[in-house]
Amino acid sequence: MSFNEELLDDSQPILYSYWRSSCSWRVRICLNLKEVPYDIKPISLIKSGGEQHCNEYREVNPMEQVPALQIDGHTLVESVAIMQYLEETRPQRPLLPQDFYKRAKVREICEIIASGIQPLQNLIVLIHVGEEKKKEWAQHWITRGFRAVEKLLSTSAGKYCVGDEITLADCCLVPQVFNARRFHVDLRPYPIILRIDRELESHPAFRAAHPSAQPDSPPEITK
């Protein structure tokens, strides 16, 4: 069955995902928190030069990236846009506060991670930077971003990123902490980030979204 044929099936949402993609991961968390059942269509970012570059997948996501979500008869790309759509169409389990200022704080954290950190250490950028320099490059941008996130959290955090309820900011934070560890970033200067990550690591929605729980996760990967 081709990608396009799958897109015609409007029975259950389909998430085009890669097990270690933090963008896919944050959408998986959001879907899980909102208790939206979905199927995963794995897209390998490394097999055969990257399945995201094939002509069929380009019809799904012209940016040749993951994630993409087929839902409600539509195909959506870009993780933050997908999460906002889920929030607006499935508000029963809200991931944005009612208070407008707190909503802005959630969006600040999401933007710093999704625009100011993650794109600078994703696969396509690291390939361009080169094997020799990619670790130093990733560490620089993650550290720079986490300094800002930690500062924001010092005034916004309760139990979680903004107050005592899980929000979209938490969906973005946890995968980025995983990336930081992957690139051996020293996380000791960010105690609030670490505390929130520990708080969420055992939450069922977060555990089910973890890379080790994905159908395309390599067998040697364990949490």
TrEMBL record:
GST N-terminal domain: residues covered: 11-94
Main location per the UniProt record: cytoplasm
Pathway entry: Amino-acid degradation; L-phenylalanine degradation; acetoacetate and fumarate from L-phenylalanine: step 5/6
This protein's UniProt keywords: Cytoplasm, Isomerase, Phenylalanine catabolism, Transferase, Tyrosine catabolism
Reactions the enzyme catalyzes: RX + glutathione = an S-substituted glutathione + a halide anion + H(+); 4-maleylacetoacetate = 4-fumarylacetoacetate
A cellular component term, taken from the record's GO annotations: mitochondrion
Recorded GO MF terms: glutathione transferase activity; maleylacetoacetate isomerase activity
Stretches assigned to the GST C-terminal domain: 99-219
Keyword Transferase listed: yes
Superkingdom classification of source: Eukaryota
Phosphoprotein in keyword set: no
Entry's localization field: Cytoplasm
Cofactor(s) needed for function: glutathione
InterPro entries attached to this UniProt entry: Glutathione-S-Trfase_C-like, Glutathione-S-Trfase_C_sf, Glutathione_S-Trfase, Glutathione_S-Trfase_N, GST_C, GST_Zeta, GST_Zeta_C, GST_Zeta_N
SUPFAM superfamilies, sorted: GST C-terminal domain-like, Thioredoxin-like
A Pfam family hit: GST_N_2
BP GO terms, sorted: glutathione metabolic process; L-phenylalanine catabolic process; L-tyrosine catabolic process
Family to which this protein belongs: Belongs to the GST superfamily. Zeta family.
Protein name: Maleylacetoacetate isomerase
Organism annotation: Chironomus riparius
